[in-house]
Amino acid sequence: MSKQFFILKAKESGYTLETISLFIIMFTGIQTLVSYYGGILSDKIGVFKILFISFVFGILSIYFMKVNLWLSFALLGLFTVISINAMRSYISHNANSKSFIFGVFYGGTAIFSALGAIAVGYIWKIYGFDNVLMFSEIGMLITLIFLLFKKV
């Protein structure tokens, strides 16, 4: 689920546009504060461990959408910045043709983000928000399991 679905959930939950703006400011502020240190940690403990940690934040952000949207947005900010930095780090350390691979990475990210948004939007419209959460949690857990068994 993308930040846009978190914003829609906040609006649906009755938050004002001013409060939703504060959610977005907090989300971006957390990304700004954590980005540098997440990169350092990625270099110290490894990309796959950092990805694992980021996906735990992602799972928690989805879980907390029903409990506390402030915490949910904060955890989403952590997930977003830590995971993208870890993936960039992996590419920069392992790709022979970095420019080409970064192009493929960002092109794939755009395509799969759009497909994910369509799927989540469809599920939300037809089956309701609770099923969106379940769908997203299951997808994140599957990814987390793959990361857990990834040979570094």
Word description of this protein:
With 152 residues, this protein is mainly alpha-helical. The chain has one domain. It is 87% helix and 0% strand. The chain is built from 6 helices and no strands. It has helices at 3-12, 17-45, 47-63, 69-94, 98-127, 129-148. The longest helix has 30 residues, at 98-127. The chain is globular, with a radius of gyration of 16 Å. The mean pLDDT is 91.
What attributes characterize this protein structure?
152 residues, 6 helices, 87% helix, globular
Give the secondary structure arrangement, pairings included.
Blueprint: H1 3-12, H2 17-45, H3 47-63, H4 69-94, H5 98-127, H6 129-148
Low-pLDDT parts are: none
Sheet-strand content, in percent, reads under 5%
Give the count of helical stretches: 6
Structural class: mainly alpha
Radius of gyration: 16 Å
Query: Approximately how much helix is present in the residues?
Result: over 70%
What is the β-strand count?
0
Strand-and-helix sequence, N→C?
A: HHHHHH
Shape: globular
Q: How much is the average pLDDT?
A: 91
Kindly report how far apart the N and C termini lie.
27 Å
